[in-house]
Amino acid sequence: MSTPPVAPSMGRRAAPTPAVAPCDAPAPIPFHRTVIEDDAIAAITATLRSGWLTSGPRARELEAGLAELLGRRHAVALNSATSALFLACKAAGVGPGDEVLVPAITFMATAEVALHLGARPVIVDVDDATLLIDPVDLERKLTRRARLIAPVHFAGQPCAMRQLRSLAAAERLAIVEDAAHCLTGSAAGDEAAPGADRWRPGDGTLAAALSFYATKELPIGEGGALVSDDDGVIERARRWSLHGISRPAHARMQVGARATYDVEDVGYKMNLPDVLATLGVAQLPRMAAHRARRAALAARYDAALADVPGIRPLPTRPGFASAHHLYVVRVDPAAAGLDRDQLAAQLGARGIGTSVHFTPLHEMTALKSLLGTRSADCPVAARAGREVLSLPLHPALTDADCDRVSRELRLIVAEHAP
Ligand SMILES: Cc1ncc(COP(=O)(O)O)c(C=O)c1O
Could you say which of 82, 120, 182, 389 would form a disulfide bridge with 109 (CB–CB 3.0 to 4.6 Å)? Predict the structure, then answer.
């Protein structure tokens, strides 16, 4: 057996022993951790061995599962919620000269799709309690150019859809829901469209966009879907998602199948490959249990943080079942003795990861310069944007981790509160 090569001494002194954390230092609690179970990994292996990697039977299976989960007629699996929003807005006919009303507290995707279609996003303020789109400010900002409302079920809590649907109907506007945070959220029957016993995303609207991004409820890395009860929307979205071609590859490549296809429309490349769809299919049956786990953790945080000065968790309204995608608190610096960024830094120093959802759209550099927005356009969102802090919330978070986050947060505030 040969001896392993020994690095020649360069005459340097031995490197100092690296600092080692004391063995009783608690492990960090990251903001998010995705756990993929063995059966999902086995399912991916099977797809990898199947000989078919891109969109095919697994993507179709995911679509059927999503449509069933949400009680919708159809779903189209796509490469992101952004693509779903884009295709739904395009199917609604959004184009140059139109305005698309979006809430200020959301991710850029909700607004950017309007810009890519040549339309103008109009940024609407949010309700101070829920951070959901404010129907009063929405009505105030409606013009003759308004074409579509894109409400966001922020943090998993559904918007008041009955009110939004009647407003949209009166103004002849389409609604495309940004349900990136709300796959498992629902609402009582009085929010539902006629005929449905409970409201779920896509109910009574043109369509809803879902996200399967790495930190979302159905994490597959990157992916999304459009769900809708409208045959025409789905048919066009499906065609546009794959270059506008008439027959997808999986149909053409069966032995003996006709190989030719037509391009019926100019489309895009937004399809979801089977490798990723497999991960979605495997995790679908766990979604209800994962939601229940997040709901229990959210209730645990609520109880632990109820009397911490200057810390106000986002409430869930009666009649609305949140998907509990995020656990968001507002930090009032006057009462807590430190601001959101200082609190996040202190939690970070104690090994706890946090995030911010969201800096409001109207304060983003690109939109300020494109649309000329100012903070005062959406004052409620502007303030919320400085105060919101998202704490770790995911199915793999233990009760002990949740308690540690609450305890450290309480201790930090106790050290600073006036
Ligand atoms: C509210 C909201 N809408 C849309 C998106 C875009 O989702 P995707 O990354 O799947 O395109 C996100 C992603 O974080 C989001 O938070």
Answer: 82
